[in-house]
Specification:
By secondary structure, the protein is an alpha/beta fold. It is built from five helices and five strands. It has a single domain, classed as Glutaredoxin. Strand 4 and strand 5 form a beta hairpin.
């Protein structure tokens, strides 16, 4: 099973910005009900796209710099970082694995590998 890593203000650049693969970032908080619902959806994507796309989580309560940097006003916010220099694509609120797969064009990215 693919690992979903937790990143922080201190490690975000290494884990996401300069990562060798595209990265899905889940901005969440432990008290957020919809965040708890989206977690298993991200686990599905982590398993399906293991080795193609990395998935990391950012607890916004513990990482206020990232929350401000990306102007996170609602959670869950899921952002897709396709590669260096590319603007992230975001989705706010509960999303199914299929919705995220479509929004972030994951099948196309996997096919190109």
């Amino acid at each position: 099973m693919a690992e979903i890593k937790h990143t922080s203000d201190a490690t975000f650049e290494q884990d996401v910005v300069t990562a060798p693969r595209p990265v899905i970032v889940d901005f969440w908080a432990p008290w957020c009900g919809p965040c708890k619902l989206v977690a298993p959806e991200l686990e599905k994507l982590a398993a399906q796209y293991d080795g193609v796309v990395d998935i990391v989580k950012v607890n916004v309560d513990e990482n206020p710099v990232l929350q401000r940097t990306f102007n996170i006003m609602s959670i869950p916010t899921i952002a897709f970082f396709k590669g260096a220099g590319a603007q992230p694509v975001g989705a706010v609120g509960f999303q199914t694995a299929e919705q995220l797969e479509s929004r972030f064009a994951l099948k196309e990215i996997a096919a190109a590998k």
